[in-house]
Write a structure and sequence with these properties.
149 residues; Alpha-Beta Plaits; 4-stranded antiparallel β-sheet; Transposase_17; transposase activity; Transposase_17_sf; DNA binding
């Protein structure tokens, strides 16, 4: 077979350093478009990007030549640079060091897109740390509670 066929749907989540709520609404869409361009330039498929003041969710499928850790590193470095250069979010200093990534069956895509599209509404009932704990538990991922303090 001369072609690689793969489709893994990822939900990538990362937060601002110390979960500082600085990703204000007026420039959030500009950031989402910038992140989409980075992924598209790496031949990844972007389904939805969303988030609130202290974290982002990216729903995408990665091109077979792209490693997850590498793409997250590139997303964080490039977006951090443009945020600071263009002064998009005055309180932004950096992204947190880590990230979370979850895989889903393609059948879950519609629900994932909707979930990320309504992040503001969703977070009226659940804090960001509560959401991440729930996602980690749902995917059977052990975590250290000290990272949530």
């Amino acid at each position: 077979m001369s072609k690689t066929y793969i489709r893994t749907v990822y939900q990538i989540v990362f937060s601002t350093k110390h979960r500082v709520p600085c990703l204000t609404k007026p420039n959030r869409e500009k950031l989402f478009r910038y992140l989409s361009k980075i992924l598209e330039n790496k031949r990844c498929t972007v389904y939805q990007i969303g988030g609130i003041e202290d974290h982002l969710h990216i729903i995408c499928s990665l091109h077979p030549s792209v490693a997850l850790a590498s793409v997250v590193k590139d997303l964080k470095l490039a977006s951090s640079s443009v945020i600071k250069k263009e002064k998009l979010f005055p309180g932004f200093t950096a992204w947190q060091v880590g990230y979370s990534a979850f895989t889903y069956k393609p059948e879950a895509l519609t629900d994932l897109i909707h979930y990320v599209a309504i992040q503001e509404e969703h977070h009226h009932g659940e804090t960001s740390p509560e959401e991440l704990r729930r996602l980690l538990r749902a995917h059977g991922i052990e975590f250290d509670e000290t990272y949530f303090e």
